[in-house]
Amino acid sequence: xxxxxxxxxxxxxxxxxxxxxxxxxxxxxxxxxxxxxxxxxxxxxxxxxxxxxxxxxxxxxxxxxxxxxxxxxxxxxxxxxxxxxxxxxxxxxxxxxxxxxxxxxxxxxxxxxxxxxxxxxxxxxxxxxxxxxxxxxxxxxxxxxxxxxxxxxxxxxxxxxxxxxxxxxxxxxxxxxxxxxxxxxxxxxxxxxxxxxxxxxxxxxxxxxxxxxxxxxxxxxxxxxxxxxxxxxxxxxxxxxxxxxxxxxxxxxxxxxxxxxxxxxxxxxxxxxxxxxxxxxxxxxxxxx
Length: 289
Ligand SMILES: NC(=O)c1ccc[n+]([C@@H]2O[C@H](COP(=O)([O-])OP(=O)(O)OC[C@H]3O[C@@H](n4cnc5c(N)ncnc54)[C@H](OP(=O)(O)O)[C@@H]3O)[C@@H](O)[C@H]2O)c1
Known about the structure:
The chain is built from eleven helices and twelve strands. By secondary structure, the chain is an alpha/beta fold. A seven-stranded parallel beta sheet has the order 3-2-1-4-5-6-10, with helices on both faces. The chain has a three-stranded mixed beta sheet with strand order 7-8-12. Strand 7 (157-158) and strand 8 form a beta hairpin. It is globular and about 50 Å long. The mean pLDDT is 97. The structure holds NADP nicotinamide-adenine-dinucleotide phosphate (NAP). Residues 8-9, 11-15, 33-35, 53-55, 73-75, 86-87, 90, 109, 111, 146, 148-149, 152 line the site of NADP nicotinamide-adenine-dinucleotide phosphate.
């Protein structure tokens, strides 16, 4: 019998590639979604669907029942309270139900700059607390502290303008979601990946400006790339009453101060190192456009 994996956050930018990879690798994938019609329209009919919300433990019980594994790819925010409520407390709920119903592996998407030292930032604190909840649940786990995804680059382009918000001086190892999804899927079948926290980095280290220029040169050749001060982004968010934009300004302020932490060598050895370069990813993106 095929093993069932529940994906929480499968409609999201980084949950969807994992759901598709798990299906490709022979698992039955059960999608946990707040709006099943919307999720089906996005993901198609080949998945199982269960309606639910991570804030409602009873909906989780129904979804987790019979599952071998659970993958968590949640995003809370944009206010601090909502990071805690969804990413932290939601993961507490998932972990408790998974422990009760005998789940054999939880995988969790965290971030490469999540650490005690960086927990002054609410989104990082919620992820750190979510990691602790999973680790304390007794369910074998694999935590992925992944760095910046290449999939975030298109979000910086608006028409023929592209912006790096703030100075962003530190280079990061840009990661393709497809490589990460293969690593997550492989981890479910690998006893050696149990009770591990992996750092996941792509093959090349580039600053945000270098990466965005590369992306635009291949996918949006007419776009002009420039920097926008963090205060300007914050002001736009304030005058437009847009909490998402204000959060992006805060997030960029965070990234300006923190570097990638940790060593990806164990993840690379056990799960296969990410190989997709930014050039390759951009070229495939251009073909899709
Ligand atoms: N972008 C990067 O470079 C990067 C790097 C490392 C880590 N991360 C982290 O990766 C995580 C996922 O990011 P993403 O871009 O994939 O986010 P996303 O596209 O916003 O997806 C978030 C998912 O969470 C689900 N969700 C939210 N609240 C829920 C609730 N109460 N109950 C059930 N499901 C709920 C959403 O479902 P609905 O369809 O119902 O909204 C959606 O499927 C984030 O925590 C982010 O910080 C990102």
